[in-house]
Amino acid sequence: GQGALLLARPEETHHPFYALAPAWSLVPLVILATAATIIASQAVIAGAFSLTRQAIQLGYLPRLRVVHTSASEQGQIYIPQVNWFLMLAALALVVGFQTSSKLAAAYGVAVTTTMTIATVLFYVVARERWHWSRLQAGSLAAIFLIADLSFFGANISKITHGAWFPLAVGLVIYAMMSTWNKGRAILAGKLYAHNPPLEQFIEDIKAQPPIRVPGKAVYLAGRTDTTPPALLHNLKHNRMLHAEIAILTVVVGDTPRVPREEKVEVTPLDDVIYRVTARYGFMEEPNVPHVLALAREKGLAFELDEVTFILGRERLLPDRRPLMPVWRESLFAFVSHNTVGPTAYFGIPPDQVVEIGAQIEI
Q1: Which pLDDT does position 142 carry in this prediction?
Q2: DSSP bridge partners of 13
Q3: Where are the alpha helices (DSSP H) in the chain?
Q4: Model confidence over 85-129: pLDDT tens digits?
Q5: Closest by Cα among 19, 13, 358 to 190
Q6: What pTM does this model have?
Q7: Which residue, 227, 192, 257, 225, is CA-closest to 57?
Q8: Which of 5, 101, 182, 362 has the greatest number of CB atoms lying within 10 Å of its CB?
Q9: DSSP-derived secondary structure letter, 63
Q10: Where are the beta strands (DSSP E) in 253-286?
Q11: pLDDT digits (tens, 9 = 90+) for 305-342
């Protein structure tokens, strides 16, 4: 409609949307547009919270405090840090662009880039998950790309007029997400590089039994097949183990939710050591007390109030041969220092937690 109007009346380029309606309807139309903007902004804010939590669960963002605002709806969440970021970004946009006409260039690039990325992701999903042939997936994606790239190319010329902003924001967020993901992989490699498999560790303590103290301990582990670093450090420095031990690994999959009956698996490794694997979907909130409750249904007699949770805490040091550029190492160290700890994130009672620290060079 606006395109047709401009072809007939080119002088209306300053406000083609409002020129579509008669002069008497200008005020009602402004009210309607304002209401639509408020509704759309609420959808954007809620979507930002949801996508952030899913990125955290998939390991692409650090742990952040997630506040559940509804007792009945699991998806109703609020993330304070994201809310502050959105507010500051909105203020920066208003101060920097000053007029809606200048902001339109940034908006156009943001929308058309999103459309293009969605088409590329459709091709990936069609190939990897639906097992379509290259011809099937590529033909359909090409049809969408013709339109997407046409719109994108028409807007990319406005980079100097404000279109650089969404591209810069996307680049910054991508840099942070990729740095966090790679940094966690490097850190895990350093932590577990020399740790023996769980089966070998159990054989070693059977051959040379350590002192056993009364009580039950739960060790959080990032991998299911390797001895947790905190368990090795505890045995090395304190020279003792609890009478019963559960090694808990929380695995977040690429499905939205995991059925209750498949969420927890308990595997006895010997008479007093158990491996507990908890599986969550990326739209779910991992909760250790809930895991223990489900594990008791599978035969693990660990009551929450009688358990000591032993966690590892890493202090990052610069390596003389870094595996990432220095700026990425600095970013990863800063984010790691300010992330929410596992105690708060997994809902563990803080008065039942013992942390064992280690210094890691990355």
Answers
A1: 96
A2: none
A3: 2-8, 16-19, 26-57, 80-97, 100-128, 134-156, 164-192, 198-207, 229-238, 288-297, 326-338, 342-345
A4: 999 988 888 888 887 777 888 888 889 999 999 999 999 999 999
A5: 358
A6: 0.79
A7: 257
A8: 362
A9: -
A10: 264-268, 273-280
A11: 999 999 988 888 777 777 888 889 889 988 888 888 88
